[in-house]
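quick one, 407 residues, struct below
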Amino acid sequence: MKKLKIKFNKLIENTIELNSSKSESNRLLIIKALSKKKIDINNISNANDTTILKSLLRNNSKKKWDAEDAGTTMRFLTSYLALLKEDVIITGTKRMKKRPIKILVEALNKIGAKIYYIDKIGYPPLKIQKKIDQKNNRISIRGDISSQYISSLLMIGPKLKNGLNIIIKKPFYSKPYVLMTLNLMKKFGISSILKGNTLKINNQEYKDGTYTVESDWSAASYWYAIVSINNKIDRLKIKGLRKNSFQGDRVLVKMMISFGVDTEFFEDGIIIKKNHNLKTFQKIDFKNFPDLTQSILVIAAYHKIKLEISGVESLKIKETDRLSAMKKELKKIGCNFYNKNESWILEKRVNSFPKSVVINTYKDHRMAMAFASISSEMEIYIADPSVVNKSYPNFWNDLVKVGYETT
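---
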């Protein structure tokens, strides 16, 4: 397996043209596909997940739809195909076939679809035998597994003849991602009602319009980590991020203050800069922004901060079991990370960093980019570096532009 060696030389450029949000892009592609009106999407993500979804929607006559390793693509397309197609199969990679989808399938079947499992019950691949003939417009769904199930259902809600009412069973994790979906739908004329844990959408049509995709706040976490960790970089400008963002990971602005980084907003993006304000013990609930977990763990490991984290159950069913993967890789740099009751504990690092370490990525883009941030402090080798293509294909090039060397 190929390994990429990373080390920091000296600061070259201090401006990052950050990649656009795949979360926004993938939702917008489904909205566009569902609309009868003209919708233009500017600055669409070049992430592999988005490229896969875009290609599948463009070739929509296929009987077999292969989502490969793209989780949002699998979940969003399951509802999309259940609404519009019959006698089609949706499948994915070996790992995708281990990622649960039963909750979404049960909800769609209750609405009026006929979806069957081809192999293991509860997991892809799926056979959509009959598209939705609506029998029910009221369903309940767990909110602690994946918000993508809820977003998937919401986007087809306006196209159902009787609309859709969704009751979300508490706890409601990753709620900002559901709000992002509703806000993007609103941009194209869809009204909805969110009252407590109940969502209501009536039958209505998507309208025409244009939307420019914002840069990705999840991806910004790697640059926040670099400013926090690298003693030779005091500030960076990150372009394309908005003060009034639909993305829940904008919480970085507030969260990173206690990890040594302040944020200043400008018309074209943000400037992040060191503030030397570090809290040595922090307790964080990640239920609304789980994609930030790996970056924050690496930052805390470097600064010898003890963390107690919760709300990370969904990380077990991502590209890999991210909690297990982080436990193994953090151990390599001298940090104990373990489960205790309903929380996970990162102990304060006592030992010095090793001189050199190989970080395994487990086919997970966030493992690669999170650990890249400590390459200014030790010799880091990233196994299978191409995994970043899933969400941020230009990441290694952007590192080089800032002053890192990759070989």
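The CA atoms of residues 29 and 54 lie 7 Å apart.
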